[in-house]
Amino acid sequence: MNIFYLPRRDAITLAVFALVVLTMPVWLVPFGAAYPGLMQKFAIFAIFAVGYNVLFGLTGYLSFGHAAFLGVGSYTAVWTFKLMTMNVIPAMIFAVIVSGLFALAIGFVSLRRSGIYFSILTLAFAQMCYNLAYSVLTPITNGETALQLTMNDPRVLDLMFSERGAGLPSPSLLGQGMSGIEAFYVVAVVLLIAFYIAQKIFVSPFGMMLRAIKSNQTRMHYTGFNTRPYALTAFVISGMYAGLAGSLLAATDPLAGAERMQWTASGEVVLMTILGGVGTLIGPVIGAWLIKYFENIFSGFNDAMLHHTFSWLPQGAQDVVVAITSKFVGEGWQLSLGLIFVLVVVFLPGGVMEGIRRFSSLFRNRREPGPTGALKTSPAE
Amino acid sequence: METILAQLLNGLDKGGAYALIALGLTLVFGTLGVVNFAHGALFMLGAFCAVAFRQFITYETVTLDPTKLSPWGAPLEIKTPMAQIWFGDFGAVLINWSVPISILLAIPVMLVIGIVMERGLIKHFYKRAHMDQILVTFGLAIVLQEVVKAIFGANPISQPMPVELRGSADIGAMLGLTPGMVTYPIWRLIYFLFSASIIGAVFAFLRLTTFGMVVRAGMADRETVGILGINIDRRFTIMFGLAAVVAGLAGVMYTPLVPPNYHLGMDFLVLSFVVVVVGGMGSLPGAVAAGFLLGILQSFASMTEIKAIIPGIDQIIIYLVAVVILLVRPRGLLGRRGVMET
Questions:
Q1: Mean pLDDT of chain A
Q2: For labelling, which of A245, B16, B214, B265 has a CA lying 20 to 30 Å from the CA of A273?
């Protein structure tokens, strides 16, 4: 058995997933979402959510501060562009290392507590990072204007081999520019690798240990396991995923701002994971896609488009319908997001994945109950 | 001495707001056992009660006065606020004092909102994990703030304080120090006194009334109280309404200090949770003490002398304190033994 082995079921999942991700430019066309900028976001935030799920889905520790690692990853990547080279691979490596170190430090302290205290601690650390990035650390983070490339960056490695060209350089991978559809494929391949690693974690004994922490930490203690190193490893891994996602954000658009670290951004990844389905592999990816889709498509709707959509209604009814729906799209898309979120938590705690499972169990043999309820989230007490 | 006193005073009004929100959070947690992330949104809704009231009474009717002409020759437009049409001169007083008066509006409104929220949504989450409660109330907070944004827009709406209460009081001179050294805006002083009296009222309500006694008994042992034939659920629902009122009043009175916008609640919520945790989950005195403590610490950390020593400390002091407290004293400053201690 080699180290790349995956159980048959997971291998099929990976293959299907790869097919779905790589054919995105095709099947997203009817949804009006097949433009590169949005698909890059789909892939990047899927990485973020998959990584977050390694912590929240497996161990049950609800972190409210993961955006900090995303921000740290972005800053590191932009600094690598500025100081060393415009190639994205060093930027990704450094971002993963630095955000991993951040996660190690923050996780080491935060994991001394669990439950809501853990959430508050991670929130406190993330807010500290955010506030500092805006105030004292301005020389490093460039504060409100956001960190960006400038004409006279050192870029030591690049300039050893080539002359400083005219205009701002852009990130590249082996000479291939990181923009448009090429960038999407680069990010998509990174997503597939990240997804594969997450699959390996899920089926490994280590993943089993993390699930045991979630289901009953006290029992783990009694049987003589020290759970903290395992939880800390999971925290660091998910922090690295977040850093990787941050570096890719910087690679597709070389700009890093502190608002990426704000706690609303941390809340967003929690929403993605919950919406898709905590503790499942595909769930967080679906959640990330849905939320980014809503954000970009719903917020782009305006009254004129609504009038066009409902033009088949009589005039009076049309105005009423447009007046009501316009509150839920455009500027107000977050209202629909919040409503969907509340409904999911109330009626479908397992997210979209549980919905699919319930739906498919309707068509299976009735006498054989589906594996519902297996995914009940319970806090690590 | 003067600087210390000035900073102490500066911390009081913000501390008062923290204490009031944290008090409500703790009440809800202590009675219903729910971690309510929508509590900041209740603070924001209270603030918007004041905004709505003012917008209503100052709704202007335009009449044309044909006898006078404006500088560019058209008939002069006279704008009369609605309150003045109805009540004449008393209407002007009403507009001037709109913020304190909207307290009267905020109490019933917030009580209803609180009770509807508890009966409609939060009731279904008592048996579920704390994580689910956090998530559903977080979603609810998003919904509430987006509704407010849809109605009132995204920009902050400033609320003037009554003319008589503008300006500053010379606290230093009152205490026999050099006059003019320690001055303090009157409204912030009022805010502090207001929050102190609300806190006092809540404690008195819990300590001195039969209703409060039953609620305290229910907090200690819900089942036994239920077995004794008392409908404890209904009282807890009312306590949720009360917590909403407390948060709402804190919001109403805060509007002249910071023009409210739709995410005011979220800004305060994060800090209030830190306050609750520092004070000790489930401890009412702890929440109040930690609220004022953190407010004062924050104002001390904003002093230029302190910032010169540790740059950026004013931005992170509250979180830093929270981290230290959580690690050193797991159940917070005044937390009871065994209440969410892990």
A1: 84
A2: B265
Query: Are B89 and B100 within 8 A, CB to CB?
Result: no
Burial class from Cβ neighbours inside 10 Å (0-12, 13-18, 19+) for residue B109 reads buried
**3-class SS at B160?**
coil
Is B266's pLDDT higher than 50?
Answer: yes
Structure ipTM: 0.77
In a domain, B340, yes or no: no
Q: Is residue B134 part of a domain?
A: yes
CB contact under 8 A, A121 and B142: no
Contact A297, A32 (CB under 8 A): yes
Verify whether the Cβ–Cβ distance B130 to A137 is below 8 Å: no
Closest residue to A135, CB basis, from B273, B312, B320:
B312
Residue range A258-262: average pLDDT?
A: 82
CB contact under 8 A, A332 and B131: no
Read off the pLDDT of each residue in A204-225 and give the average, rounded to a whole number.
89
Question: Cβ separation of A342 and B327 shorter than 8 Å?
Answer: no
Nearest CA in chain B to A135: B312
B202-212 residue pLDDT tens: 999 999 999 99
- Domain A8-278 indexed as CATH 1.10.3470: yes
Q: Which of B129, B274, B326 sits opposite A377 (nearest CB)?
A: B129
The reply to whether B67 falls in a domain is yes
Amino acid at A334: Q
User: Can you tell me the distance from the alpha carbon of A362 to that of A368, in angstroms, rounded to the nearest whole number?
Assistant: 10
Sequence ranges of the domains in chain A: 8-278
Q: Is the distance from CB of A59 to CB of A380 less than 8 angstroms?
A: yes
- Short-list A61, A79, A82, A59, CA closest to A71: A79
Burial label, B93 (beta-carbon count in 10 A; 0-12, 13-18, 19+) = middle
Beta bridge partners of B78: B63
Q: Which pairing describes strands B60-69 and B75-81: parallel, antiparallel, or unpaired? A: antiparallel
Q: Which residue has the tokens 């004041």?
A: B50
Q: What are phi and psi of B154, to 5 degrees?
A: -95, -10
Nearest to B41 by CA among B24, B56, B29: B24
Kindly give, in sequence order, each residue whose CB lies less than 8 Å from that of residue A84, ignoring residues fewer than 6 positions away. A90, A155, A156, A157, A158
Q: How many domains does chain B have?
A: 1
Domain limits for position B216? 2-328
